[in-house]
Each structure stands twice: as C-alpha cells, then as structure tokens.
Amino acid sequence: MAIKHKGEVAVVLECHHRTPPKTRAFVQATLRSIRTGKSLDTRFSSTEKVDVIPLDHRKMEYSYRDGDDFVFTDPETYEPVTITPDLVGDAVEYMVENCPVGITFIEGNPAVMELPASVVLTVTDAPDGVKGDSTTNVMKTVTLETGKTIQAPLFIKTGERLKIDTREGKYMERVNK
Predict the structure, then answer these.
(1) What are phi and psi of 163, to 5 degrees?
(2) In this structure, are strands 161-165 and 149-153 parallel, antiparallel, or unpaired?
(3) CATH number for 43
(4) What is the pTM of this model?
(5) Which of 89, 98, 117, 152 could form a disulfide linkage to 171, CB 3.0–4.6 angstroms apart?
(6) 73 and 79 in contact (C-beta within 8 Å)?
(7) By three-state DSSP, how is residue 29 classified?
(8) Is the dihedral angle over the CA atoms 89, 92, 160, 139 positive or is it negative?
C-alpha cells in the first residue's frame, strides 16, 4: 500500500495496531519515502485520515539500455517504460534481454522494481579447476554474461548456464541447455 504522508508519497512496509492500557489506540507504521528511499517509523491516531494512493503492479521484461537508463516492455501491450539506474540498483547484475521483472507504479510512475527469485545466466569465463581439489566442496570464481562474478563448483565450464539466486547472489544449480 502507498499513502500520502506529509506531502510525500510513501510505501507502507509494516503496520501494527496498538491499544495500550489507559490511552487511545494508534497505528504504528514503518514507511519508505519514494522520493528519498529513506524509511521512518510514524504513529497515526485512530481518528487520523490517511490518503491511500493506488498501486499498479505489472509484469515487464527488460529490453535494452538507452544510455544510462533501462527500457522495459510490457509483454502484453508492448508499451515501453524507461527506468533510471537508481531505481534498478544492483539488479543490473542479473538482467539480460527478456528478463522478467515486476514493476510497481505509483500515480503512473515506476516506483519499485523486483527481480524474480532466480535467473539463468551463461558463464563467460571459468578458469580450470586444479586436479585433486574435487574431494571436498571446493568453489572457484566464475564470471557471468552480465559481468557479475560468483562462486561456483569446480566442474562448471565456460558456456554453461547456471541458475543464480538473485536475493543472495549465489550459485543454485547448473541448467541444461
């Protein structure tokens, strides 16, 4: 949910209704400002009015880069949406062409971008493992097609496709072509 708080649009991260003894009930909420990205804890009295702002969640696909900005396309309407690098953040390390993402719009403007839990990326550089190191769970550093480096098992070779956890940035499994 998004609300207008002190003239700014904020996303509600957490919300708890409290009724302490001998005082009036209130709502304790954690809000994140869309403009600044900062979080704050605030209290609303039970009689206070709050302006709720509608959210629009859409599934989009990453299309291409336009200078510093990123262009995403709605797979149903083919409508392009341009998003700034600060909204994309570290997600750029997991995005390849046609990568599905979820984008939340507030008042028609993109506000939050979410990656899927895992993505499949191709290994562009994987040094050979040292013979004899395979007796334990030894890992090596490999480079993915987006330029991100991760730790992967010794048997991974250049050109293989790997499933990567986008929340932790870790190797999950090898994917058949």
Answers:
(1) -90, 125
(2) unpaired
(3) 2.30.30.30
(4) 0.69
(5) 152
(6) yes
(7) strand
(8) negative
* SS3 state of residue 64: strand
Give, as one character, the DSSP assignment of residue 23: S
- Asked whether residue 6 falls in the same domain as residue 22, the answer is yes
Residue that finishes a domain, picked among 67, 99, 114 = 114
Number of domains making up the chain: 3
| Token output for 86 | 């600060």
Place of tokens 């403009």: 35
Kindly state the tokens that stand for 166: 């986008």
Residue 24, domain extent:
2-53
Quick one: which of 121, 123, 81 has its CA closest to 102? Answer: 81
Give residue-wise pLDDT tens across range 96-124.
888 899 988 887 888 888 888 888 988 98
Task: List the 161-165 sheet strands across, edge first.
Answer: 149-153, 139-144, 118-125, 161-165, 170-175
